[in-house]
Amino acid sequence: MSNLTKLTLSAARDGLKTKDFSAVELTKAYLDVMEQRRVLNAFVTETSDIALKQASLSDIKLTKGNAGAMEGLPIGIKDLFCTEGVRTTACSRILETFIPPYESTVSGKLKRAGAVMLGKTSLDEFAMGSSNTTSTFGPVINPWRRKSNFASPLVPGGSSGGSAVAVAAHLALAAIGTDTGGSIRQPAAFCGVVGIKPTYGRCSRWGIVAFASSLDQAGPIARNVRDVAIVLNSMVGYDPKDSTSAKISVPDFEMALTRDIKGLKIGIPQEYRLDYLSNEISKLWDDGIAMMKDAGAIPVQISLPYTKYALPAYYIVASAECSSNLLRYDGVRYGLRIDGKTLDEMYKKTRANGFGKEVRRRILIGTYVLSAGYYDAYYVKAQKVRRLIYDDFNKAFQNVDVILTPTAPSSAFGLNEIDDNPIAMWMNDIFTIPTSMAGLPSLSLPAGLSVDGLPLGLQLIGRPFDEETVLKVADVMERSIDFKEIPSLLRD
Amino acid sequence: MTHVIQGNTGDWELVVGIEVHAQIISKSKLFSGSATNFGADPNTQVSLIDVAFPGMLPVINEHCIEQAIRTGLALKAKINLTSVFARKNYFYADLPQGYQISQYEYPIVGNGNVVIDMHDGSTRVIGIERLHLEQDAGKSLHDQHHSKSFIDLNRSGIALMEIVSKPDIRSSEEAINYVTKLCLILQYIGVCNGNMSEGSIRCDVNVSVRKHNEAYRTRAEIKNINSIRFMSQAIDYEARRQIDAYERGLQIRQETRLFDPKNGETRSMRSKENANDYRYFPDPDLLPLTLTQKYVDAIKEKLPELPDERKKRFIDNYKLSSYDACLLVAEQSVADFFESVAKGRDPKMVCNWMMGDFASAMKRMTRTIDNPPVSADNLGELIDLIYKNTISGHIAKEVFLTMIETGKTPTEIVIEKELKQVTDSDVIEVSVDSILESNTNKVIEYFNGKDKLFGFFVGQVMKATNGKINPVILNEILKKRLESLKVLFNEDNDLL
Amino acid sequence: MDESIFMSLDKDIVRNIANLARIEVLEDEIDSIVKELSNILQFVEQLSEVNTDDIIPMTVVADMKLPLRADVVTDGNCRDKVLINAPESFDGFFLVPKVVE
Fold it and tell me: Which of A33, B230, B432, C68 could cross-link with B62 by S-S, CB 3.0 to 4.6 Å?
């Protein structure tokens, strides 16, 4: 196997610049690995022809000296980003054959920056899930295995499981995902890679298949903090086509990695010390706090009292929004159609067959909480609680610069261990959802291994539009942690 | 002024509220940049947003907001500085998103009113409940195929204003006057072309009946009425249907009904049978719309004169009767035409001409004011000729007809046909004398008390001079002449 | 919050919301859906503990003004793109089973 796929994104960028290898060589190396590791099911659609074409164009640009910031760097794109001329499915049967005649703003920016699209990565259907098992194209497999049970496949987390696996298994230098309640951070933690959800409004949502509009936000997953900063640079920016896109100046995130966090105040929310939090996660968190201290930062106990209500409030808001966002999948203009004698029958059959179980469940819940008589009790109530959660963070950030928490309450679980009770599954997102509700930037980085040899992540949360501090602190922590483990599958 | 409907159990009162959907004139749609022209090829004025492809997002058209505010101001309504766009969720083949972006709890415009002019010259005030912005739906064609409906999304996403009246309307005449007046206001401010046949104005009418002084009873909503005549028919039919039902001891169901112009009846709408639950909620793709009072005030400043104000000005400045003023302002371009002619002229005379010969010519030739039988300049010139005594009113009528026929200016016609009025007293005296001389018997009869013969003399002079003599001067001279003759007559009966 | 609101999910409500959402639900699925949804509603019921008097609901976290677009035609006139994914189209129209009004 070529060593090219072992390079980080920043190292590959340097190698391309110094002509140690060409973009085509780099791309071919990845296409080879993708083929070898198809068993992981990380990609829904591989676009090798497009990738090679883009790579050879990149080589020309690299030679001419007009290369973009991502020139020649092969990445995966979550199959929730519409890509012009390339099938975009949201991993749903209802969009199985959908070929968008347009390119999402974020993927378009990356392409213009020279990134090479290797393919479309898998996700939980319509990004609804935390295990990447609800895709109509089958589950994605985590490249990590438990020491105690090497045979049993684990989930990669979700919904951006395909993207996290593509990065962890070296099928791509980086991959882009979306995060609604933890869909970048939780799979990043499960797969031992870095993922950041920027502030709501930082990346345009135009052209991303919508799950919950007030929460959805795109972000990168990569092998280290510098790499996510590099990719993020080419994703962000005001987009007049998205009314919720922030008209705010964009810094160079790579420049934020100054390694100086002396005197920064790190908030430690007491409410995240759940009774049932495992010892190893608690210890991981404590170690993280200690490291920060060593680096000159000051840990500060903070209180986020409404944290525990974030999960129920989130499920009301997200389900309500999804129930409306998914009305457009009706078999009339695109996507699956199952014929019926009447228009209504066609709708009902198309949607019953086109959507998987979890999606249907959320649509029904969302429909219910918006329906007459229940709207105030559920939806309005949840939006009020959302404000309380937002205010919690606002208050906390008057005293601290960044907040440190675990990313998820557990490590990756087995494909066959999935609880039939959806609420148990939702608990995976207990630490990531509050930040989503408040629209704040947050990042997960690998911080160690569980006793059973699985990666565990810590989450850093920043003030609105202060991704720089989050990245800066993460970069320092990353150096202290020095996480060198590689997935079981990649060990020779 | 109370309108009652006789029933078997006594008098009933009609209660009507109207929701008018008015398409805003704009180049592009409310939330997308596609064009809005009427009658384009199917699905050509459709963007990826209008067809609701995955990931497409709305961005609002500022012009449409401004037009909604202008309309609100024209309806003397409260402009809400914060309003919220909400999704109205329902399935329909020509509703691509599965929801209509509308406004629900927080509309852009609140309470206002419209003054309507009744047939008897009285006015009534109809309250406006609210005005909100929303997207239009596409069109479904059901008659193209035996088992398929055809969907065209050209109209999908065009900006609509829904203007909701209070249930203040009490007769179909008031309903007609209300919608007519509302359309007039919209035309005056240039917000909507008011074309019902192209669907730029559509009405939903809420009808109920009640006994005097009762609380409101259950209403039926009659949807998608596309002419004022049909609206009036639908209201009257529906009122009668409800009264009959109550009088037979039945109840009225709150439902949506459709008016069938073929038989003039309303019927229950099958597709709306499942009582809809629209699950309104704020659209998370859009932020609340916030305006500043300064912005609203700036718009207010530039608002043109409205029909009621114009009517008042016509009465005050031009000294027109309320009736005349009402007729003139009822069509903006008619009022404009009037003003351009009336400038520096006698307004009453201009008004009379417009209501008289001009209006009948327009009707006869099936012309509109935008394509008038004679231009404002020419009509003005004609009136000047009368005013300056160059021609008489009588001759002017003839000139007017020639103007229509030939397109020539009145001055050209007067010169060509030698119609210039005679005002020279010496010349007129000669004509008068000649007529009196050849009608001595009549003159004697006149002196003997047959006053009516004065008119006969005038007619004879006019006839002899082809009507070219100025009638005022003629009257004076004739009177003077007859008086001096009468003195002689009295002195000597055998004078002649 | 009124407790009765939370405990009232039944088969008819499920049939109704499935109809509103236009998702075909077979009769033999309804019981399990009632159970699942009730379970979820029970979970979210904990929100009733929170006092939210005088709290303004938060629809969007983006702290900005609604951006406005100039009234210019910049889009449309792309029927091929519009229809390219259509399950059934003819002569420039989308086709659906006939709607009876």
Answer: C68
